[in-house]
Amino acid sequence: MRVLFFTGKGGVGKSTLAASFAWHLAKNNRVKLVSLDPAHNLGDIFQTIVERNGTWVSERLLVEEVDMKEKTRAYLNKEISLMEETYSYLKVFDLDRYFSLLHYSPGIEEYALLLALEETICRSGTFNYVIFDTPPTGLTLRFLALPRITLAWIERLIMIRRRILEKRVTIAVLTDGKKKADEMSDRVMNRLVELKKQYDNLVQVLESNICGAVLVFNPDLLSVREAERLLDGLKVVGLKVLFCIQNKVREGDQDVAIKAEKEIKERMGSQVPFFWVKWKEGIRRNASGVPFPIGEELMTAVMSLGRE
Fold first, then answer.
1. Structurally, how many domains does the chain consist of?
2. 223-282 pLDDT, tens per residue?
3. Residue 14 to residues 46, 203, 259, Cα–Cα distance (Å)
4. What digits encode the pLDDT tens for the residues 70-125?
5. What residue numbers bound the domain in which 19 lies?
6. E strand residue ranges, the chain
7. Is 297 helix (H, G, I), strand (E, B) or coil?
8. CATH assignment of the domain containing 278
C-alpha cells in the first residue's frame, strides 16, 4: 500500500488534483481517496453525495469525507471515560465541568484529524493506494507533527506514572504489609503504553517509503511562499515530497511560473519531478463528469507511480 498526501495552500487546487490522481490510479489499482479538509468538496468534484461510510465512484475508487465533529466526539469520549473512571474519587471537585471544557481545548481538532488518519490507514489493507486531500498548510503541519510530539509527552508521563505506582506500593507495604499488583494492572499505565505503541507505529508509517507528499502551488507569490514554508515543515516531520505540481498556469504566467519553480527547487535542494497544469477554460471533465485537469506528461508519471 502507498499513502499520498496532497498538500498546499488553500485554493491552489489540491482537491481537484487529488481526485484526478485517484481516478487515474484506480484504472489498475484499488484506491481510497479521503478528505481531511473540514471544508469538504470531493462530493462536488465527483458530482455525488459522499455517504457516512464512503461512496464508490467507480469499481476501484472509494471516496470518503471525514466527519470532524464525529471524530472529535469519539476521541474525547474515549479519553474522558477513562479519566472519569480513574479519578472517580475526585467527583467532589466537579470534574465534569472541566471535562466539558476539553471540547474547546487547543489541539483537539488536530488530534481528531490524527485519529482519522490512523484509522483510515489501519482499515485500508485491501487498497493499493490511500490518497489524503489535506487541510490548508497550518493545520496539516500541526497534525503531522503531533505523533512525535505526543510520543515525547507519553514517554515522560510513563516515567511519572511509574514513580506514582512505586510510591503506592511502598505505602501499601508500610500500611497493610502487602504489595499491590504490578503496574500493568493500572488502567492509566495501560492506556499510556497503548498510546505509545499506537504513535510509534504511526511515526514509522509516516517516515517509511510507503508515504509521500504531493506539493501543489500556483504561480503567485503568496502560494509560493506558503509552499516553501510547507517544504520546511515536511522535512521536520520526515515526510518526503514525491511530486511538485504548479497548478492553474495561465497563458500569461510563463515568466512567473518559471521563477516560482526555480525558487521551490532551490528550497528543496533535491531532485523531485516538477509538473505544470495549465488553466484553459476551467476544469475539463470526461464523459462521466470526472475532473480531468492533468496533462499527458503528468498522467504518465501517475500511471508509472501506479506500477511501482
1. 1
2. 999 999 999 989 888 888 988 898 888 888 888 999 998 888 888 876 788 888 877 644
3. 14, 24, 21
4. 777 777 777 667 666 666 555 545 556 555 666 666 677 787 788 888 888 888 88
5. 2-68+107-306
6. 2-7, 31-35, 55-56, 61-65, 129-133, 211-217, 241-249, 274-278
7. helix
8. 3.40.50.300
